[in-house]
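Incident log, structure service

09:12 report received: a user says their structure output differs between two submissions of the same chain.
09:20 pulled the input from the user's history:
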Amino acid sequence: ERLHPEGILGIGLHLPASLAAYLAGPEGAADLADLGEWLCASGLDPFTYNAFPFGGFHEDGLKENVYRPTWAEPEREQYTLDVAQVAGALIAACRGSQSEGESEGPPGHLSISTHPGTYGPWVTGRGELKVCADAMARVVSRFSQQEGVPPVVLSLEAEPFASAGNTRALAEYLVLANLSTVRELKALGHDAPEAAALAGRHLGVCLDACHSAVEFEDPAEAWSLSSGGGPAEEGTGAPPRFGYTLGKIQFSSALALSAPASDAEGRALLLGMDEPRYLHQVRAQSSGGPLAESDLGGLAATLAAGDSAEDSVAGAWLEAPEWRCHFHVPVDLESYGSLSTTRAHADALLAEALTDPAAWPSGELHVEVETYTWSVLPASG
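09:34 re-ran on a clean worker, output below:
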């Protein structure tokens, strides 16, 4: 009532694979219909989905296994298709069915976020990325065949230490994914222009503000790369310049520690937030170049093993101006104890998006507030 007094509130849903498969199958049809009816009656519009965690997201020991199954495994492909089927049914229940190009009814698209292929340290060669791209192409081709619902955008999410760890790496990978997608669509009978347009419409990016901040990205560059460079020409049906589009922005915030060498309390607080469920990648910019640890535990071990000499790895970390950690925190916070947050980076990304509506793929800008670490935040925070 406070956020959207007109009576409709957009929401994002996460469906674990087992639930998505049930709702997408015949045995779950009645429950899916009931869910759609309840969402509609409650004034909730399920416009976006998170299909990154497959299941057991809050279980101890998850860590890098959040990337399993990878996009090289058929279970990831089927999971994403199940989510898309459920998404189409629920949006039809809430908005009504619509035909391609139909002028009446709300414009828009459905966005489904997913990881960019696999966990980076698991990649041994480009061939693995090609397998992932081919699987995504098959999913996108299925999305292009859905009727009666807004276009579904497969929205790939860069994350530190993933196979695409930042927005620039993701843009480079999307060149490969686009080639696979166009080839798949041409095999289905589309000519080259049609295949390119469909690939650009259904293959996209999820720009996560927390991840972007941890990678010390420039907001303007991150937005430009994530939005596919904008449409080639409005109203022509041509694909975006880079062959993909923006699925959504995840408005999220990370933890940061300034001047770590002189803030023992801040170092202790941040390192003490290591926990057994999620990866908390840490990045810093030093005079000798970028620094990276795949988890808080790794950073603690590096600091414990080294000394404060400037030529040591530990010394480089301590002398860095700022550490940034992939630890999602409530987006209203500008600080957390003696730590700061990257809220300003999220604000800057959103500002870039709001000044560039021509790059919104469907007349809508999808923004999803993401904070999932409530249960692991220390109570003292």
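09:41 both user submissions now match this output. Likely a transient worker issue. Closing.
09:42 reviewer note: Confidence is low (pLDDT under 50) at residues 98-105, 230-236. The first strand starts at residue 9 and ends at 13.
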